[in-house]
Model the fold of this input.
Amino acid sequence: MADGDIVLGANQYGKAECRLVRVTRDTPVHEIEDLNVTSQLRGEFTLAHTAGDNSHVVATDTQKNTVYAFAKERGVGSPEEFLLALGTHFVESFEQVTGGRWAAESYAWRRITVDGRPHDHAFVRSGESVRTAVVQLVDGQAHVVSGITGCTLLKSTGSEFHGFPRDRYTTLAETDDRVLATSVTAWWRYTRTDLDFNAVHEAVTALLLSTFASVHSLALQQTLFEIGRAVLTAFPDIAEMRMSCPNKHHLLVDLAPFGLENRNEVFHAADRPYGLIEATVQREGAPQVPEAWATVPGFC
Ligand SMILES: O=c1[nH]c(=O)c2[nH]c(=O)[nH]c2[nH]1
Done:
């Protein structure tokens, strides 16, 4: 190959956003699992790009069909297990597939209550956030990163912000009582693939919420770190946690022109611009695994 030749770099391909609803109807009490699954293969696909030779190309249509067939044959169970099964299948079935990325969002439903009783087969979309998972197979190693997105939280007190530097452009008043609101996107990386992912996900989410509520916040940065610290302390199988949180500013409305006092009661919920606070919380000295994060959107 001569210097200056044009060659193919990193690539992956697959079917994005396979919307999958699995109904488990072995008894009159049905269960539903609702996912949006993306499958992307990596491996030896050079000739498909450079010569139009598709002999290695597992069609994206086949990848989509596999998602639905697996839902029938093995069920979902948890998004993480489902994605691990998909990835393992493609790597083991096709020599040219050396790895890939399998991702899912999952949406929660709860039963509709009728006459005080949960209905057998009628549901209402619920959930305060969307659950997310990314499984990657890289050099024979499985990386599992789970998370939540769109989890909107608010504290009406118990939040301060002061002590920041002031220069000629600073107008923000110091405060020892403000509204703190955010929409959490969080990801955490597991060190194992044989966990009860549903149970751990529920427990991590509950701990995230309770820590947000109970930490007396001196800044959103501090709240994020405390959430990460709580999660890593409680779950030894989680190696690190990343969070991306807009600071959804609630601006005190000046009611003085109307002769009214505003004692932290009336706010303008501003939508932009917003502070954007992002942080990783990790165990000191633990090995870094950048390949697990490379395709998780929005993180440095
Ligand atoms: O929690 C906060 N962190 C900041 O960095 C910041 N900056 C700002 O203007 N308000 C806030 N609030």
About this structure: The longest helix spans residues 197-214. The pocket of uric acid is lined by residues 161, 172, 219-221, 247, 275 (CB under 6 Å). The mean pLDDT is 97.
